[in-house]
Structures are given as C-alpha cells and as structure tokens.
C-alpha cells in the first residue's frame, strides 16, 4: 500500500499518469487475452477458424513445417532440424561460464561444418539439397550466426587498422568503414546479388546465400569497428605503456591487455549492433531468399489461410523476440561475470 | 657495489635533444649510468624528467643524440625494442596495473609471454617477488581491490619478475597517500641495497640521501646540476637548484 502510494500517486501528475495507464491497459489487455487464448482455436480447419471470433493459431500449427523449413524437401526436414539442435546445444553451453573452455571452441569449429553437411548433403548417403531450397528458420539462423561470428573479429581488425600508425592501412580502413556505413544494407544486398555477379568471369557463380551472407558480414563489421574503436580510444594510455614496458609487442599487448578491457567496455553497444544485424537478416527477402519472414508470408498468400496475418506476424515477432532477448540477456550475464573480477 | 667487469656505462646518453612540435623538451642531455648505480632525478614540474626516463625505454622517441642501453643503440635499432624493454623495468606514477587480471596474472604475464618460461615457474618466481614486497597474501585479488601503496608494490614486483637489468621509476610515490609512501620507499631501498641499477624521478629527499650516488637536477629540459646527494641538498651549487630546494622543503 505504502509502495503504491509512494511510486504511483506521489504527485497529482503521477496520479493522472497512473490512472490513464491503468485505463489503457484495461481497455487493451483483456480483449487481447480473450482473442489470443480464450476464444482462439489451435487445431481447427481453416473454414471452422474463419467463422470463430478468436485467434486462429491453426495457421501456425498446420503450416509449421513450411514456415520453419521453407522449400526444403519434406522428407529431409529432419536434417535442418538436427542442424538447429546442434546449434542450440552449442549456444546453450556457450551461455554457461562453466563450459566455456578450449574444448567448447573445438566443438564449435567441428559443429559448424557438420551443420553445413547436414543441410547440404551430397555425402554420407545424404541426398544433396540445393541451397536455393534452403529457407525458413535455419536460413535465418545461418545468416545470423555466421554473420555475427564473422563480423565481430573483422570489425575488431578494422578498428585496429583504423587506429594503426601505418598510413596505407589506416586510410584503407577509414575508406571501407565510411563507405559501408554510408550505404543501407538493402543496397548492399542488391549489389551483392545483382551487380557483383556481372563482374565474375563466365561460368563462375557464387551461391546466392553466400553472397547475401558476405554482404551482411561486411555491413555489420563496419559498425562493430566503430564501436570497438571507441573502446580502444577510451583506454587509459598507461595500459599501452605498461604493456610496452614489459616488452610485449603490438600483437601481444593488444591481445592480452588492450582488447580484453576495451571489448568489455563496449559490450552494450556491440550487442545492440548484433541484435539489429540479427533483425536485419530479414531484409534478404528482397533478393528472393526465403527466410522465416518470407515463408510465413508465403503461407498467408495461400487462399485457404488468407487473412490470418496477425497470428502469423505475432508468431514471427515472438521468435525474433526470443532471439534478441537471449542475446541481450547473455550480454548482461557476460558483463556481470566480467564485473565480478573487480 | 660496482661490478668491476662492467666498466662501460650500462646506459649512455649523449647529446640528447627532443622536441614536441616546436617545443624543445630536452636540451643536450648527457648522462651515463653504471651498473649498480642509483640516480635520483629531480626538478620542477614540466622540466622534462618523465620525458628523459621515458626515452630510455623508448616510450618516447628522441630526435637528436644517442641513447645506448645495455650495448644496443636506441637510435636506429627499433627492431629489437621489445628485447631492450624487457631488460628495463619501469614503474609509473599511476601504477598502471592490468585491472582485468589478478595480481598473480599481472606478474606472470611478462615472464610467460616475453621470456617464454613455463607458467608454473613464472608463478613460483611471482610469489617470490610478492613475498619480497610483502604482499603475497593478495595474489588472487584484482588490482582494484588493493590500496594505492599495495598496488605500487605490486607494480614494482611485476617489473622485477622480468629480471630487469635496470629499473626506472617515475615519481612512484607522488600519487600515494602520505601514510603509504614509506611502504613503497622501503621496498625501493631494499632493492637499492641489493645492487639494482635504478633511475628514480622523485622529490623524496630521504630516499635520495639514503641510497642515491648522484642527484640530477633538471630545469627547462636541461641538466642544471649533477652532484652527490649530501652536497646537493646541503650546499647546492646552482641558483635554480637552491630556489627549487627552498620550495620543496
Ligand atoms: N605528448 C606531449 N606533447 C606535447 N608536449 C608534451 C607532451 N608530453 C609532455 N609535454 C611537455 O613536455 C614538458 C616536459 O614534460 P614532462 O612530463 O617530462 O615533465 P616532468 O618533469 O615529468 O614534470 P612533472 O613533474 O609534472 O611530471 C612539459 O612542459 C609538458 O607540457
Ligand atoms: Mg613527470
């Protein structure tokens, strides 16, 4: 009671705000719950669904496999499924400090090609699946995980390059970073899918997914680079000098002294960039890749399921939220762990 | 205290000049330091004391003159600069410990990565030096958990772990609360008595009188007076030294 008084009704203005907020919540939440849960149907046919007044979640349940796996051959769906299980297992263990060790790194290094083999097939008796048929959640995760994993180290190198004393390297990095940051991701994707192939010699083609992936990596790396540069410039000069006076060379002092501290300072902005890069993977629809957003739109274009877009988009939003939220909670955990060292 | 074998000066500075842009920080500095010698450098703020000792391990580059350290010329031999720095310990005014590493890791980092000795050996030697600066019980803590005096003693131990041939100190006690100054000076005096070659920028007259063989007084980038501590403090030869001493007492 006291808490309510102190925090919600401390001034007339606050009281008014509280009342208005309560009113808005009252007007929106119960109808939503009624729609989403009470009157909703989860497994009904679309005709039944259309006559009801609640949410029709069966658009998800009926089409789940297509939304998740896209045009991947139906009988082979277990393969991207296994890949995702491997990925989630690795991510789960990475989250936990106890398991973070050299061994886990080797598991990652081994796990990534294994996932690729499961997806692509063509050996070990697995039917080869053309990457043009990859789609849905595995594609989104693939673009995101590889994209972020490659963009982060590349961004660090660009930041170091930009602060380098060698004029050529410095200029090159500045030009790269500023060029990329001056262009929206969409146009980079267009360039990689339409303009870039024009320059390839006859007969050479590069997989569309790889081209999109490279565009995402190059784009994200430029932003990571600027954030990391901020961290590096915020470092106390004394740290560089102490490292140098012990006889550490440039590489060792960066690796052992400067980067561990600088990267830690910039965890929050870095994670913001990674989160928005994750969400930006959905832009690959414009070069006709079927990521999870596109597969769900495809479902909606089926006359049978037309008109159920709120359900589908809520589902997609929940998936994206789960991804982004776990990233930011992981970063908070990481910061706490590193902070304990003080 | 001097080793007869090393007649050649361990550090030799000849005609050293350094500019920051148009501003000349060091003017025609000549200085030789023998093995086992302890030299105190003092002078007013901005006179170039820090710059001088930072040139000795090339944290600053000079434009004119020669610096020889342990037989290597610092002028054109930049390739080996890490090797030379490993032989020259440096203690900073603000400690500059690595805050993300434990005390023990601060001490073993150099030996393991630069000297390439085993982790175990490095830890044993680190504990030896921590005992020496009387702080062994803090080995597992992080620098942020220690007092200023303790941090500075750790910084000295960190340098010693590299088994340097000479130690440079840049106002090691001037960032410390008065009650912590003595614990750091005691460590430095002990080091001096064990025969370490030291160049110390400090205004601690007690320290200078007790262990220094020479006091160098700098002003406006020049060495104004070079004298033994007794004469320097009791009977300074130069007008400016006299003025300076009257101010710090
Ligand atoms: N990086 C730099 N760029 C330009 N000028 C500098 C730089 N570093 C030092 N100086 C100048 O050089 C002069 C000498 O500086 P130095 O730090 O060597 O003095 P100091 O004798 O150590 O003084 P203090 O007792 O205050 O530490 C000062 O006038 C300072 O302003
Ligand atoms: Mg100084």
Quick structural overview:
The complex is a heterodimer of chains A (342) and B (249). Chain A is an all-alpha fold.
Structural commentary:
The complex is a heterodimer of chains A (342) and B (249). Chain A is mostly helical. Chain A has 15 helices and 1 strand. The longest helix of chain A is centred in the C-terminal third of the chain and has 31 residues. Chain A is globular and about 75 Å long. The model of chain A has no long low-confidence stretch (mean pLDDT 85). Chain B is α/β, with parallel strands linked by helices and 249 residues long. Chain B is built from 9 helices and 10 strands. In chain B, helix 5 runs parallel beside helix 6. The mean pLDDT of chain B is 90. The chains are: A mainly alpha (342), B alpha/beta (249). At the A-B interface, helix 11 and helix 12 of A face helix 2, strand 6 and helix 3 of B. The site of adenosine-5'-triphosphate has 10 residues of chain B, from helix 1.
List keywords for this structure.
heterodimer, A: 342 residues, mainly alpha, MetI-like fold, 2 domains, 73% helix, globular, B: 249 residues, alpha/beta, 6-stranded mixed sheet, 4-stranded antiparallel sheet, 9 helices, 10 strands, binds adenosine-5'-triphosphate, binds magnesium ion
Termini Cα gap of chain B: 30 Å
Order of helices and strands of chain B: EEEHEEHEHHHEHEHEEHH
The hetero compounds bound to this protein are: adenosine-5'-triphosphate, magnesium ion
State the helix count of chain A.
15
User: What profile does the largest beta sheet of chain B have?
Assistant: 6 strands, mixed
Helix percent of chain B reads: 25-40%
**How many strand segments of chain B?**
10
Q: Strand-residue fraction of chain A? A: under 5%
Q: CATH homologous superfamily of the largest domain in chain A - what is it?
A: MetI-like
Please tally the β strands of chain A and state the result. Answer: 1
Distance between the first and last residues' Cα of chain A: 39 Å
- Extract low-pLDDT stretches of chain B: none
- From the 3D coordinates, which CATH architecture of the largest domain in chain A would you assign? Orthogonal Bundle
Integer-rounded radius of gyration of chain A: 25 Å
If helices are DSSP runs of H or I spanning 4 or more residues, what is the number of helices of chain B? 9
Q: Report the uncertain regions of chain A.
A: none
The total tally of domains of chain A equals 2
């Amino acid at each position: 009671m006291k808490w309510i008084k102190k925090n919600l009704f401390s001034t007339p203005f606050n009281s008014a705000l509280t009342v208005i907020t309560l009113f808005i919540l009252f007007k929106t939440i119960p109808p939503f719950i009624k729609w989403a849960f009470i009157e909703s149907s989860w497994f009904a046919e679309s005709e039944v669904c259309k006559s009801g007044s609640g949410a029709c979640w069966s658009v998800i349940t009926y089409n789940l496999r297509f939304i998740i796996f896209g045009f991947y051959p139906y009988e082979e769906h277990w393969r991207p499924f296994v890949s995702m299980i491997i990925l989630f297992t690795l991510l789960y263990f990475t989250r936990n400090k106890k398991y973070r060790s050299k061994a886990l790194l080797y598991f990652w290094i081994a796990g990534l090609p294994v996932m690729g083999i499961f997806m692509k097939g063509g050996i070990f008796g697995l039917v080869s699946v053309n990457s043009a048929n990859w789609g849905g959640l595995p594609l989104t995760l693939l673009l995101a995980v590889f994209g972020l994993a490659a963009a982060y180290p590349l961004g660090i190198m660009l930041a170091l390059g930009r602060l380098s004393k060698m004029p050529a390297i410095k200029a090159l990095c500045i030009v790269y970073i500023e060029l990329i940051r001056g262009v929206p991701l969409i146009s980079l994707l267009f360039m990689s899918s339409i303009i870039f192939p024009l320059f390839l010699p006859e007969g050479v083609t590069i997989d569309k997914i790889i081209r999109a992936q490279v565009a995402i990596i190059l784009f994200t790396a430029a932003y990571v680079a600027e954030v990391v540069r901020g961290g590096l410039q915020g470092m106390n000069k004394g740290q560089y000098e102490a490292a140098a006076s012990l006889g550490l060379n440039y590489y060792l002092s960066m690796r052992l002294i400067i980067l561990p501290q600088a990267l830690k300072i910039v965890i929050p902005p870095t994670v913001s960039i990674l989160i928005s890069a994750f969400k930006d993977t959905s832009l690959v629809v414009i070069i006709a890749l079927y990521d999870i957003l596109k597969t769900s739109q495809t479902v909606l274009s089926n006359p049978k399921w037309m008109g159920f877009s709120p359900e589908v988009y809520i589902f997609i939003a929940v998936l994206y939220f789960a991804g982004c939220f776990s990233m930011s909670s992981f970063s908070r955990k990481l910061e706490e762990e590193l902070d304990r060292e003080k | 205290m001097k080793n007869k074998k090393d007649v050649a000066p361990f550090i030799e500075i000849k005609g050293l000049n350094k500019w920051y842009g148009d501003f000349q920080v060091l003017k025609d500095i000549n200085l030789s330091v023998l093995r086992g010698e302890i030299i105190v450098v003092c002078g007013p703020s901005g006179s170039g004391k820090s710059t001088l000792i930072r040139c000795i391990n090339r944290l600053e580059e000079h434009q004119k003159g020669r610096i020889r350290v342990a037989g290597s010329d610092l002028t054109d031999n930049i390739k080996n600069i890490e090797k030379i720095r490993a032989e020259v310990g440096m203690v900073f005014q603000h400690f500059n410990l690595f805050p993300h590493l434990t005390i023990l890791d601060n001490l073993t980092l150099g030996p393991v990565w630069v000297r390439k000795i085993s982790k175990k050996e490095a830890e044993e030697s680190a504990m030896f030096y921590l005992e020496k600066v009387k702080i062994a019980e803090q080995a597992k803590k992080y620098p942020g958990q220690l007092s200023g005096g303790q941090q500075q003693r750790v910084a000295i131990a960190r340098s010693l772990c590299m088994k340097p041939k000479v130690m440079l100190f840049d106002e090691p006690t001037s960032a410390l609360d008065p009650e912590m100054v003595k614990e750091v000076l005691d460590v430095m005096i002990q080091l001096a008595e064990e025969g370490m070659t030291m160049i110390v920028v400090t205004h601690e007259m007690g320290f200078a009188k007790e262990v220094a063989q020479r006091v160098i007084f700098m002003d406006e980038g020049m060495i104004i007076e070079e004298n033994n501590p007794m004469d320097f403090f009791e009977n300074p030869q130069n007008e400016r030294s006299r003025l300076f001493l009257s101010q710090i007492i």
